Amino acid sequence: MKHMQQREALLVLQDGSVFRGLALGKIGTAGGEICFNTGMTGYQEIYTDPSYYGQVIINTTSHIGNYGVLQSAEQESGGVKIRAMVCNFFSQIHSRHLADGSLQEYFEKANIVGIHGVDTRQLVRYIRDKGVMNCIISSEILDPEILLAELNKVPDMEGLELSSEVCTKEIYEVGSEDAKVKVAVLDLGVKKSILSNLTDRGAYCKVFPAQTPFSELAAWNPDGFFISNGPGDPAAMPYAVETVKQALETDKPLFGICLGHQILSLASGISTYKMHNGHRGLNHPVKNLITGRCEVTSQNHGFAVKGDELQDHANVEVTHLNLNDKTIEGIRRKDKPAFSVQYHPEASPGPHDSRYLFDEFVKLINE
Ligand SMILES: NC(=O)CC[C@H](N)C(=O)O
């Protein structure tokens, strides 16, 4: 049995606060925007979700690593996308007979730096009150002053366009060619479980790189458009807004998730803003205003759509509302077959309350 490394590590926040702990993953230094996810399961899905690109994740669940990793089945993309990880207790020993490795080895191979032994309750309360900020973690430089100087080089998430860095470089197809429904997917950092939710419902998807001009998507003559999740600031993506505007002109069904929801909103004239703290977890209550039902949802976003601007747009209707803070969770166009949600209906490993949205999209296409 491999013994836990006891090497010291430091976490320094942008405002100069220092948290001390022990090293995990690769020995090194990494900086990014610090955010917390309250989900109790699905850590590998979080680490490989392209929407987390450039971010340092605090897992608030107290034990991480204990069920190891499963390379094939539990990755949302080809590899780890987070910049670094913070947790309370990190286990190098895993106990799941299906696992194909330990999280420690997985992070080492992916060059991911991390820190454990941190009181994540204290840290999260601190960030919750002060708001989102950048941070740096190191297990090689233990001088906070040097780290703070390094931290100044970490870019602000606001204004960053990151989809081009994580999306596919080549067009590819998923699903059966015999499928009746053809969906053009604009890959802004798409999660695998979104694609499988589409193909499971009989869609044949062609996945296009983020900056593909609309004419190329249209040339395939799809029956509908899907605008994916992804990292970065939606306001820094005029190219995607333009693609969605042109897709709306076709009057074909369009569905957007998370970043895709923010892009549909921008294409409909509604702006986005950076939240004091994002929503990241598996138990965010959302009310479907059409059915009156509550859904427990999986979420991961740091930007949101400006609710106060919606009243000026008669062609846009709010369909979903967050019951914790009343932020906008879903919209639909009244003049087009287009809708989107801020949260994650694919939600792997769950909850699955919102999967009906994929059914509705395919139904809209078939109609
Ligand atoms: N999961 C996502 O698509 C995230 C969207 C966007 N990057 C945000 O943080 O709000």
Keywords:
Glucose Oxidase, domain 1; alpha/beta; Rossmann fold; globular; seven-stranded mixed barrel; 19 strands; single chain; binds glutamine; ten-stranded mixed sheet
Describe this structure in words.
Helices cover 22% and strands 32% of the residues. The chain is of the alpha/beta class. A ten-stranded mixed sheet has the order 10-12-11-13-14-19-18-17-15-16, with helices on both faces. Helix 8 crosses helix 9 (259-267). It is globular and about 60 Å long. The N and C termini lie far apart (58 Å). The structure holds glutamine (GLN). The site of glutamine has 12 residues, from strand 16. Composed of two chains; the small (or glutamine) chain promotes the hydrolysis of glutamine to ammonia, which is used by the large (or ammonia) chain to synthesize carbamoyl phosphate. Tetramer of heterodimers (alpha,beta)4. Belongs to the CarA family. It is an enzyme of class 6 (ligase).
Q: Would you tell me which CATH topology of the largest domain applies?
A: Rossmann fold
Mean pLDDT: 96
Kindly provide the name of the CATH class of the largest domain: Alpha Beta
Uncertain spans, ≥5 residues at pLDDT below 50? none
Catalogue the ligands: glutamine
Report the principal-axis shape. globular
Distance between termini? 58 Å
- How many beta-strand segments? 19
Within CATH, the superfamily of the largest domain carries the name Class I glutamine amidotransferase (GATase) domain
Number of domains: 2
Give helix % range: 10-25%
How many helix segments? Answer: 10
The Rg value, from CA coordinates, equals 20 Å
